[in-house]
Amino acid sequence: MPVPITIADDSAFSRKTVIQALPPEWDVLVYEAENGQEAIDAVKAGLADVLFLDLTMPEVDGFQVLHYLNQHHNKTVVIVISTDMRPDSIAQVSELGAYRCLKKPLSANELHQLLYEVGLI
């Protein structure tokens, strides 16, 4: 049965990059969110067992999404993909329950290894 995943990033190019980096053997249904509110809505609708999340987005940012998920949907696997790799940001997203942070630009090999490490593939 396919795993519902949502890719939340305000950049269409970044969302496409994540989609192209997904391992072909991973059976997924891909949904896209252009901002944090859409990401939260996707989680509420059951469209995000796994959420790939950018931190810098309009309306609701990635930190706010993580805070919401930490309070209401802590079973969602969140992998942050961002250019914001400051130690304080990494610490904050970790405290809020993100599984890992990956730096943009995304490496398909790094993503594949992470998905394997966390048991998603």
From TrEMBL:
SUPFAM superfamilies tied to this protein:
CheY-like (SSF52172)
The keyword Phosphoprotein appears for this protein: yes
Q: Which residues carry this modification: 4-aspartylphosphate?
A: 54
Q: Which residues form the Response regulatory domain?
A: 4-119
Which example biological process does GO assign this protein?
phosphorelay signal transduction system
**Alphabetically ordered keywords of this record:** Phosphoprotein
Does the keyword Lipoprotein belong to this entry? no
- Family matches, as InterPro entries: Bact_response_regulator (IPR050595), CheY-like_superfamily (IPR011006), Sig_transdc_resp-reg_receiver (IPR001789)
Its protein name is Chemotaxis protein CheY
> Whose protein is this, by species?
Shewanella mangrovi
Give the lineage: Bacteria, Pseudomonadati, Pseudomonadota, Gammaproteobacteria, Alteromonadales
